[in-house]
Design a protein that fits this description.
alpha+beta; seven-stranded mixed β-sheet; 12 helices
Length: 301
């Protein structure tokens, strides 16, 4: 299976999502009045089904399982295992993901902080996920569908499945931000460039040019993957040459990669560029770095 395209899409969709919390979810405590004690917990429900075990594992590894179990009146849009497999994520390869922070941001797009049956969701038409992104529900060709506005859509393949603190609807696609239009890809590329400098420059300043080079390389690989032919031929050639970087010291390579990042930023948005302030050395486990490393590893595997 060629994992490159879906994994790069997922990795890059993650970096344009804001970091969210569960502050909007009402916590009912372990014995909340709204809990239906005779129903299974979310994790038991997901594990007992044959087609939602990847989601159960991801919720556990991201730490969201406990948060959701202690919350009340939830609607869970549960991507089935086939939906995750489309992004190269399967139960057998979860150990290859070393940082689940970005995964958690995507999973939060699938949670609504009130319990909605399929009919209630269709009647409401729209709801907001705890990831602060709007979801739209509609009937099409006799099927109930859900769409992440500005992102992907899914068919609800199994609905109104009760759990102790809400309801589950199984869907056939992972909901992620859509990077299909040129403008969306350009904004995502600008965000990558900005964050790449803000993460990489402190590493260079703190005496770790090797980490800085890796961050800058991953940033430029991501930009190239997003824009494809959207860069000018001259800049694309400059970028390709910088990524080879043979015969250069790490400090020299870092400076060269930074110049290409600045050239990309100037071409995409000709205005003053972000200045990276001196800060503590970033961790190599930063979610953006981890997501892009995984995408690159899959692409070259």
């Amino acid at each position: 299976m060629n994992f490159r395209t879906p994994l790069v899409t997922l990795a890059l969709s993650l970096v344009v999502l804001p970091v969210q919390t569960f502050a909007g979810i009402e916590s009912s405590g372990p014995a909340g009045d709204r809990m239906e004690e005779h129903q299974p917990s979310l994790q038991h429900f997901l594990r007992d089904r044959d087609d939602t075990r990847v989601l159960a594992a991801l919720l556990q590894r991201t730490g969201l399982a406990e948060v959701l179990e202690s919350s009340s009146a939830l609607t869970i849009l549960a991507p089935n295992d086939a939906a995750f497999a489309a992004f190269g994520i399967e139960a057998s390869n979860l150990d290859s993901i070393s940082d689940f922070s970005a995964v958690a941001s995507v999973l939060k797009l699938h949670v609504i902080d009130r319990s909605l049956t399929a009919i209630e969701a269709a009647s409401a038409g729209r709801a907001t996920s705890v990831g602060s992104q709007d979801l739209e529900f509609s009937f099409r060709s006799g099927r109930l569908e859900v769409e992440l506005l500005g992102g992907t859509g899914a068919v609800i393949v199994d609905n109104d499945l009760p759990i102790r603190n809400g309801v589950v609807h199984v869907i056939d696609t992972v909901l992620v931000k859509d990077l299909s239009t040129s403008a969306q890809r350009q904004e995502a590329a600008i965000d990558l460039l900005t964050r790449g400098v803000r993460i990489g420059a402190p590493a260079f300043n703190d005496g770790d040019p090797a980490l800085c080079c890796e961050i800058y390389e991953l940033t430029l690989i991501g930009v190239r993957g997003l824009l494809g032919d959207g860069l000018s031929p001259e800049l694309d050639a400059q970028l390709a040459s910088a990524l080879v970087g043979e015969g250069s010291t790490e400090r020299a390579r870092a400076r060269r990669l930074r110049r290409v990042i600045e050239a990309c930023y100037s071409e995409l948005r000709p205005q003053p560029q972000p200045v990276a302030r001196r800060a503590s050395k970033p961790s190599s486990k930063e979610p953006l770095i981890d997501a892009l490393r995984e995408a690159r590893r899959r692409g070259h595997g």
